[in-house]
Amino acid sequence: MITTILLLLSLLLHVVAFYFIIVLYMKFSLLKDLSDTQRQILEETENSMTSFLIDIKDENEKFIDKLLSSSDRKSNHVLKEQASEKEILPYPGRDQKSKESVKGDFVKNGEELPNHLLGIKKMEDIVEISHNVPTSKPPFEIEAINLFKEGYTVEQIAKKLNKGKTEVELLLKFRQL
Q1: How many structural domains is the chain composed of?
Q2: pLDDT tens digits, residue range 112-151?
C-alpha cells in the first residue's frame, strides 16, 4: 500500500515537473522570437537611417557644388564689371607696383585672397562702446530679495512688484533664502 502511494506521488511529481518544463520552454521560445523580431527591426532601422544619411550627404554635396559654382560666376561677373569700369589700384603708397606684386602683398598663410578682395584699399574696424545708464530702479531679483530680507511675505512681495507668487517663490528658492 505504501509503495502504491509512493508510486502515485512520484507519478504526480513527474507530471507536474513535465508541465513546468513545457511552460518554461514555451516562454523561452516566445522570448527568443521576440528577441529575433527586435533584432530584425533594429537592423531595418539602421539600414533606413544609413540610407537617409547618405541621401542627405549627397544633397549637401550637390548644394555645396551649386553654391560654389554660383558664387564663382558672381565673383567673375563682378570682377569683369570692376575691371571694365576702372583699373584696380594697389593700396596707397605703392602706386608704382604692378598688379602681380599687389597680389603677392595680399597672400596670407600661403593662400591667395580671392580676386574680388584685391581691390580693397584699406579696411578699418569701427568699434562702438555704449555705456548703460544706470536705472533708478533695481532689477526685479534684487528688489525681491531685499524685500524678503526686510520681512515681507511672498504674497506681499509678489503684489508689490506686480509678479506672480510662484515666480517670487522660485526666485527665493533658487537663491536659497
Answers
A1: 3
A2: 666 776 666 666 667 777 766 655 667 888 889 899 999 9
